[in-house]
Amino acid sequence: MTAATHSSLFPQVPDSADAVLDGLDPEQREVATALSGPVCVLAGAGTGKTRAITHRIAYGVRSGLLQPSSVLAVTFTNRAAGEMRGRLRQLGAGGVQARTFHSAALRQLQYFWPKAVGGEVPRLVERKIQLVAESAARCRVRLDRNELRDVTGEIEWSKVTQTVPEDYPAAAAKTGREAPRDPAEIARIYGMYEQLKRDRGVIDFEDVLLLTVGVLQDRHDIAETVRRQYQHFVVDEYQDVSPLQQRLLELWLGDRDNLCVVGDASQTIYSFTGATPDYLLDFRVRHPQATVVKLIRDYRSTPQVVRLANGLLAQARGRAAEHRLELVSQRESGPEPHYCAYGDEPAEAEGTARRVRDLIDSGVPASEIAILYRINAQSEVYEQALADAGVPYQLRGAERFFERPEVREAGLLLRGAARAGGADAQIADADDVPSQVRAVLGTRGWTAEPPAGSGAVRDRWESLAALVRLAEDFVRAKPAATLADLVAELDERASAQHAPTVEGVTLASLHAAKGLEWDAVFLVGLTEGMMPITYAKTDEQVEEERRLLYVGVTRARRHLSLSWALSRAPGGRASRRPSRFLNGLRPGSAAPRPGAAGAAAGQGGVERGAAARRKRRGPALCRVCGRTLTDAGEIKLMRCEDCPSELDEALYERLRDWRAGQAELLGQPAYCVFTDKTLLAIAEAVPGTESELSCISGVGGRKLDKFGADVLALCSGREPMSSDAPSDATEDSPEK
């Protein structure tokens, strides 16, 4: 929930259509009252987009302008669809269909299949990856666990972009995809996968959309039936639609334009699945008469968090960056984001757990704290650190709340107790509904105090405790409620997947955190190679990584911490560097140079890099701790002598050996080639281009011309080219 809608878990239903508009800001109200024609809502993070579109639907329904059964609202996750249904129910518009694309398509496919094809819809395969593994084996291709997952992802991408097996190699090359195996092999596995599905009469998740599109394209009578049913469409997270989903939406619409879309190109983080922001950015091209509303009032985050978020996007490039929204915080001031470098990953996890413990001790609920990382494999060390600190946690992406065995069992027990009423001995002595719930759940493991440690026992207790808290909140909102009323509320919430809050720190990947928010967020593991991830090679891929970090930053309401570890394990070489995305934002770091990425590729890149270095002004700051540097040697290294070093010791030794050879050829002291401090700076920075090398103090233009190729070869692990001693190698004055 956003700050703008955080007042109550059980709000009163508005008593009129006009009351639905109460509390909306001017832009949200403009969205809510724009009920005809195409509408495009460009909504920044935390600006209340879900609030705006649910109030739009509810206002239309309550004013009689929209029939609930004629509205179809679609989004991308069951959680988001469940939240939308819950909000609409609270606004008195409970009859509206709010579904995911796949859920809406499957419902239509099941209804129309007997008429369009005959018989029953093929069975939906539950574990696609097993079928992909069998397909690979039949093609005599051995895939390890990670390759199997990645090849499955390539098949999914192919289907949502409507790419058939034989076209996969060309499509992958055209879009610059990094195929996990030879594209021809993937094409063969993909083809075999499709053949096995046909042989067994099963379909997968993507087939649901493909088959629905096929039915609507081929059977105009069925398409018209759907269009008569649904007159108005709302699409949330429109920046994440794939070409296949866009095609389905167009078939639903027909020649009508009663469409409202909402999205933010700066939160496009699923392009690897086929999602593209182009449909959002081109909406005005396809609908010239569209009403366009921008939501930029951020009700979620403090000015300090918003400033960092805006700063991240200010450095972005590409089409999505050109349409970025400058957020304006509507909240009171808060603490500055906290930056911290740790010696190694276990130290980072332990330090994070300590800070989490301190926040909880200061009154921040554990459920309002999240630790977010780039990949799921990073979670283990944080699970251990939180367990050691006695902090409860939950892993995001685990089983849905209402599908957990203990929750299903609790629901059955509460339903039975409600039917029995006073005849049930368990609740005979209970004075109120929460006491009745505690009594019933006490027979299945709930206690007033949580069990020690973590694991399955603690997870079960947290689920039951969440039901107890929900009962307490329910009765506070509705004092006259009975146990039967609570059971009915649970049934409605289960149907809408509107889960109560589990009291534990959330551990989640940045992708899984999309659409969520917490009072305190810890962004961890922010090193080069992890953020951006090492396989992000192209400019587009790197920019998506920046957007992913932006999504992480904008999850925080008040407290935000960003951290990184200088080495992987204790005692390891401290060779890691903080994420480039933090340059110019974290204390003591220099802002990235405009055009730096492309400077090395073009002629004259070296000169531009050197010029930028020469023009730098202001105090030199340590890139680790941020202290102002005054010692010449420290300035050359851009760090304090006693701050953790990122030195590549093997590279440093190779550079020293190479320098000795060059000095011997020149017949001059070694420092006339490069000083020790310059070699140390090179071994810490490990430059990969001439532009990067030119920015190291002590590497002038002449030395770059004479020695640059050799130094870059050494940095990349190659042998330098042998060369004669240059006559003017000492033209740059040597540094002592």
Automatic annotation (TrEMBL):
Residue spans with biased composition (Low complexity)? 584-600
Pfam families (UniProt xref):
HRDC, UvrD-helicase, UvrD_C
Q: Which reaction does it catalyse?
A: Couples ATP hydrolysis with the unwinding of duplex DNA by translocating in the 3'-5' direction; ATP + H2O = ADP + phosphate + H(+)
Provide the binding site for ATP: A43, G44, A45, G46, T47, G48, K49, T50
Q: Which stretch is the leader sequence?
A: none
- Spans traversing the lipid bilayer: none
User: What EC number(s) is this enzyme filed under?
Assistant: 5.6.2.4
* All residue ranges annotated as the HRDC domain in the record: 645-725
| SUPFAM superfamilies, sorted | HRDC-like, P-loop containing nucleoside triphosphate hydrolases
Q: Which domain of life is it from?
A: Bacteria
Asked if Isomerase is a keyword of the record, the answer is yes
GO MF annotation list = DNA helicase activity; hydrolase activity
Tell me where in this chain the UvrD-like helicase C-terminal domain is found. Answer: 303-558
Listed A to Z, the keywords are:
ATP-binding, Helicase, Hydrolase, Isomerase, Nucleotide-binding
Q: Does the keyword Secreted apply?
A: no
Q: Could you tell me which residue ranges the UvrD-like helicase ATP-binding domain spans?
A: 22-302
Residue ranges, annotated region (Disordered): 569-612, 717-736
Q: Which family does the record assign?
A: Belongs to the helicase family. UvrD subfamily.
**What name does the UniProt record give this protein?**
DNA 3'-5' helicase
Organism, by scientific name, is: Streptomyces syringium
